[in-house]
Amino acid sequence: MTSTGIRLHAPAPGWAIAADVVVVGSGVAGLTAALRCEAAGLRTVVVTKARLDDGSTRWAQGGIAAALGEGDTPEQHLDDTLVAGAGLCDEEAVRTLVTEGPDAVRRLIATGAHFDESTEGGLALTREGGHHRRRIAHAGGDATGAEISRALVEAVRARGMRTIENALVLDLLTDAGGRTAGVTLHVMGEGQHDGVGAVHAPAVVLATGGMGQVFSATTNPSVSTGDGVALALRAGAEVSDLEFVQFHPTVLFLGPDAEGQQPLVSEAVRGEGAHLVDADGVRFMLGQHELAELAPRDIVAKGIMRRMQERGTEHMYLDARHFGAAMWEHRFPTILAACRAHGIDPVTEPIPVAPAAHYASGGVRTDAHGRTTVAGLYACGEVACTGVHGANRLASNSLLEGLVYAERIAADIAASHAADTLPAPAPAPLPQPAHPAHPLLPPEARLTVQRIMTGGAGVLRSADSLARAADQLHHLHTEAREALYENGKTSEPGVDTWEATNLLCVARVLVAAAQRREETRGCHWREDHADRDDTTWRRHIVVRLNPDRTLAVHTTETADFPPTTDSPQSPQRPQEQ
């Protein structure tokens, strides 16, 4: 796969450091990969957009899924994952996840993460949607992500690993042969480095998290602007299944005009017995699925949306008053505090909830070792598409995927280094282009993109809504391009303009994939194609960016991914969009 030659408009790097591997992101995936690479003797640099503990991992409430309980097996975990994935999971990728997962969790505990224990002394396990067994390990009641983040950050700092905080990664550096040679980045604020610089390394691990900020309301933090996916596309990598954005069913409803990060009400609340009800107290999920409120997330989100449409309301309710104050305070202290901060007391009243963008099941396409279609570029965690999640992620599989595939990436990089197939020192990167290759959007375009995506490509989609979104996004794209190439003008380089530009990039790909998939499957819900169509659409949609910034979209021949190296093109010709 060759690079597109497209880079964000940015100043040339004013400083550079060298490493064997640079990890971009500091969630469970990034820090696990970094710790394993460092333990293998590799010079490792961690780059993170905010502070080390500021990514999506620390917001994870529910827990981490693994077959750790009595009577549970990896095979049962596999079955639940495949069902949730609605026919698009890569079975071997899932088998890797569920078989290597239990030991990966034990290694996480050995690193210093403390999980809640039962009265008998073992791990306290709960259930979440789509799981037929209690297999969700949690910490601090509903603060699992915060505890995992704490343990990994402490381990990184104890090792004295080199870290660059408050740094937005810009673009991948490549050599004359198209192989990874590092990244450019912009450091915000004071520190050892400032402004635009570079880390030269022959291996880059993208662990940049999600892209929830492409929608108006999301559970994702403000830093989740799809930077990793956009960088990979500009570098020539393929992305897959970006249409499958999971909308969490139970997000605290703060009003119809609420924007930005919204408080999550964990699925574990339903796992412990809370009920979804309408304004009359009717449990509307009964009869819709054998697991009722604990059905896979796409089914629950659709159930809520249908009931909202039937009743002409903007939210439903989650009723857990029967828990009592003691259980709320012990098991769900974080959620209790968030609700009370917004004037709702779940001990005495139902919680208003509605679906909001939560997790991207698709992302940068990888193989079983986290390798992308660009040599030397790896991806893991939410930014990646390993094939584990298919069309809909099973609850609490994300932290586990981050753990398992980060360890696999580190092992692959270490093996390449030992075999002298990892270039050392890093190959010389191609020089920066003399002129800006990619126009930047103004900061206010971020809100415009979010509103376009919420209106046209949210929980409910149709040919008309998607066409409208595609036209509006194309207008933004064309307007910025004409301003640059006809008038020589573009927005000033800066975090706000880079983020807005990245959001437009991933939005265009998401909409193109959603337009192509003319069926309803998993968390992709087409009102005009209400049925699942395995004959035509049990396939993956793969997108790459052409050098002229058009999108090449193709559908795989089968439900299997082609290899990431020397990837054959589908006989179906790519559609330029």
From TrEMBL:
Subcellular localization(s) per the UniProt record: Cytoplasm
Main location: cytoplasm
GO cellular component, one term: cytoplasm
Residues spanning the membrane: none
UniProt keyword annotation of Magnesium present: no
Record key words, sorted: FAD, Flavoprotein, Oxidoreductase, Pyridine nucleotide biosynthesis
Biased composition, class Polar residues, residue ranges: 553-577
Pathway entry: Cofactor biosynthesis; NAD(+) biosynthesis; iminoaspartate from L-aspartate (oxidase route): step 1/1
Name of protein: L-aspartate oxidase
Name of the gene: nadB
